[in-house]
Amino acid sequence: MAARILLVDDDAAHRSMLKTLLGSWHYQVQEACDGAEAVACVQASAFDLVLSDVRMAQMDGLSALREILAFNPALPVILMTAYSSVETAVEALRLGAFDYLIKPLDFTALAETIKRAVTTPHTPLEPRQVRSLLEEPACGILGQSTLMQKLLSDIATVAPTEATVLICGESGTGKELVARALHAQSERAGNPFVVVNCAALAENLLESELFGHEKGAFTGADKRREGRFVQADHGTLFLDEIGEMPLAVQAKLLRCLQQGEVQRVGADRPITVDVRVVAATNRKLDEEVAKGNFRQDLFFRLNVISLEVPALRARREDIPILAVHFLEVFARRNKKDLKGFAPKAMDSLVRYAWPGNVRELENAVERAVIMAKESFIGQEDLPPALLGAIPEQSSALAGMTLDHVERLAIEQTLRETGDNKSETARRLGITRATLHNKLKKYSLE
Ligand SMILES: Nc1ncnc2c1ncn2[C@@H]1O[C@H](COP(=O)(O)OP(=O)(O)OP(=O)(O)O)[C@@H](O)[C@H]1O
Ligand SMILES: [Mg+2]
Asked: pLDDT class for 386, splitting at 50, 70, 90?
């Protein structure tokens, strides 16, 4: 398939000349007339390369470069500048541009640079934004999005206190990582961090797991056993999936939280413990309370401080960083020398909705690392679910002009129908004549 190039220039004549030239080299070309339109195009569909002018009336090439790479750091961007300004060139490369060319263009150099960019996927490990953020993640929690930065700052505030913390978030968002960070940043850090998965055990077993039991307390209790609470003394007890805890155990937990004491199953006296409890749930606990599945008093007790770990699709800016991080981890583990993601692979990653959040991303990258046959991960190495991903257009489209949205819809449908005009018109719900007029209007013929 021909590589897709986004051509960005506010000079219509220059653009049209380049479009013809690139077309003659068998590239598929889409045009944008300024930086803002270029950013919108990149957010709306996948490209292999961006070729952009630097000086433009609306948004200049460097600002566009910054925004394009924030969306997809694997996308090679070649800048063209009429001025041999060393500063601009240095700045462009520092921001992660693939290369820059001086106008008037030397077409041989242009051909070579484009070929180099589309055949050896530009490693996303390079853009500085990604690199620098990988250096010092707080407790292994990566994320540059405002949502994650806020969460990290809340963790830092809450961690040193003795407050019980309830961590909420969809499955795979990183709740356990947050719980570990709360422990690591507290004065309890040198003491145990003990995990109990409340969903994994039946009621009676969970009770004995948490609080321990005396010898002979029930059939099979042939030895006295310390519970997890005692194991976590002076440390932190992480109660995962607390929403699954049976009501009877909830009552005992509440007593324990209020009195700082635990009673082994079958014991007649409680023992004092010093444990900080951090709980996590992927359910909406207030709804579980309303349904009668969760004790309201326990909910209030746990919910003194609650932290929400946002879904990955609510912070897409974090996807490239996480993807690159997992690529490094799994490449090392599988002894593969991988340079990064091909632009379209990265594009699929940032577009997908990730119902399984970071864990799903981690698994997808692991699979891709294993499948990769070249020195980079291509779109074909990703799980099939990602490739059928319907772009979440709502956010990408916000702020575009209606004409622009219309043009994108037409282009995308044409692509999907293999340039079949009748089918495109049918899918868009317009007549062939209307489609024809619009193709003319947007010079898409
Ligand atoms: N911000 C992050 N930075 C780096 N790695 C992350 C991040 N968030 C999650 N992970 C990784 O993703 C995986 C899932 O995270 P974790 O187990 O903490 O999620 P969870 O919310 O507890 O999931 P579940 O609800 O399925 O138990 C782990 O391997 C974790 O290390
Ligand atoms: Mg978990």
From this structure: confident
